[in-house]
Amino acid sequence: MAANGNEACGFANGESSVSSNGCSKDFAKSQPVLVNGSAPEPSSHSNVLQPERFTFSPEPTIEDIRRMQAEFTDERDWNKFHQPRNLLLAMVGEVGEVSELFQWRGEVAEGLPDWSESEREQLAHELSDVLIYLVELAEKCRVDLPQAVIRKMALNRLKYPASKVHGSAKKLRALIKGCFSAAPITPGSSVKGPTANEGADLLFRKTVVP
Ligand SMILES: [Mg+2]
């Protein structure tokens, strides 16, 4: 595995390509994301206008959220209750509260056009509860969440190359099935090649692990 963020992101050419949000500028440039609702800009790869995307405010950061929750629990002397297992269960409970808001509605369109302001605010509350517990759980488990996300996204890009899975919901393992078989390596040989699953694992390890 790569030792630094640039290599992990697949940009090992020595360029300083890390933007202020901690990710590769090249990666950020490839995302058709608009900042704070500004007018759509042409894609860097074509003159086609990309659809406007919702974006978050830059603050608070994840570290800000960790600090605010730490202050909240310190002020109430609740740290003695906030062990990792309790935090995990609390977070799962909050996920259930999010689920209740979607329950029995059928499919919900992006942007929630049919939801009232009150329902949207309730959703914002419950999603915030999930995030707050997630951040505190990561803190208590000593997981540096922002850096962990960068590492995991790099692994995801290696595991699911856009050229292989573009437009498909199938996982790469299923897509490359058939490239391998347990047939004899040479006719008449008793030595067999890898199965589809073994082949997928071999390919993944060869790709991800130097
Ligand atoms: Mg709640």
Look at the structure and name the CATH superfamily of the largest domain.
Answer: MazG-like
How many structural domains? Answer: 3
The low-confidence parts are: 1-45
**How many helices does DSSP assign?**
9
Report, as a whole number of angstroms, the end-to-end distance: 6 Å
Largest sheet: none
Kindly report the CATH topology of the largest domain. Answer: Helix Hairpins
Q: How much of the polypeptide forms β-strand, as a percent range?
A: under 5%
Element-level helix/strand string:
HHHHHHHHH
Structural class by secondary-structure content: mainly alpha
What do the pLDDT scores average to? Answer: 76
CATH class of the largest domain: Mainly Alpha
Helix content: 40-55%
Count of β-strands:
0
What small molecules does the structure contain? Answer: magnesium ion
The CATH architecture term of the largest domain is Orthogonal Bundle
GO molecular function, one term: identical protein binding
Keywords: Cytoplasm, Hydrolase, Magnesium, Metal-binding, Phosphoprotein
Subcellular location: Cytoplasm, Cytosol
Protein name: dCTP pyrophosphatase 1
Describe what this molecule looks like in 3D.
The protein has helices at 5-8, 25-30, 62-76, 84-102, 117-140, 145-159, 162-165, 172-175, 196-208. The protein has 210 residues and is mostly helical. The chain folds into three domains: 1-58, no CATH class; 62-147, Helix Hairpins; 171-208, no CATH class. Residues 1-45 have low confidence and may be disordered. The structure holds magnesium ion. One of its GO terms (molecular function) is metal ion binding. Keywords: Cytoplasm, Hydrolase, Magnesium, Metal-binding, Phosphoprotein. This is dCTP pyrophosphatase 1. Its EC number is 3.6.1.12.
